[in-house]
Amino acid sequence: MTPEVISVLLSPWFLALFGLCIGSFLNVVVHRLPQMLERGWKIDSAEMLGVPFDAPPQITLSRPRSRCPQCAHPIAWHENVPVLSYLRLGGKCSKCKTRISPRYPLVEIMTAVLFAATAYRFGPQPTTLLWCGFVAVLVALAGIDWDTTLLPDDLTLPLLWAGLVSAALGWTIPLNIAIWGAVVGYMSLWTVYWIFKKATGKEGMGYGDFKLLAALGAWLGVQMILPIVLAASIIGAIVGIGMKLTSGLREGRYVPFGPFLAGAGLVVMLAGQAQVLGWLGWA
Predict the structure, then answer these.
(1) How far is the C-alpha of 216 from the C-alpha of 274, rounded, in Å?
(2) What's the pTM?
(3) Residue 99 three-state SS
(4) 158, 145, 161, 185: which is closest to 33 by C-alpha?
């Protein structure tokens, strides 16, 4: 493959189109992965307790075929083209006319924009695809945590190990910085968790948040842990206050922290270490 072809394939415009397709897949991941995990947990619990359990039909990321949740109309390929199908259908099911959530095209567009920004940030080199994978997993984790307050090990742990392996292979940051990023990322939130629990008797966050910040540290380095936590905390507080004022808080009156950690990680990745440290006056 010639350098010219590689330059085109890794250009912001081409990766934006690729991001639209990946965004469509991420919608499936956000919707189905929690259901797959819940089914597995119930089956394992029933076996451990020795009680009968009628397991729901098995579901994977590819099967069964996507259907309208209202009328069970199978979604044809031409009804599943990212963004364009949503616009052509007027945001409604082609059969029963039930409204389709605008979240689906928004996730596709957001993923496309992030892929294009990643291409612009890192240029036409193979590691750009690696960072696009990093982006995709963070988008999926943010969506799942917002919906379910769950950050699945199925995503956080592979993201953590991928960051460490990429550093070991010399593709991202020095390995020692990645290792300490993972350690400090995990231990910082773990410490806050236990201090808060001992002081209040309540759990302020989940273990998935520890693992997500460890993964961000493995990819972005130990120097970026504090900026990520600061940005996530400030944005999370603003959103939480806004939801409280508009009565948008869910039962239990809490806001998941994972989406804000993921968002802060994406900002730090796209801005770069020098820029972030400059913003904080630490450069």
Answers:
(1) 17
(2) 0.93
(3) strand
(4) 145
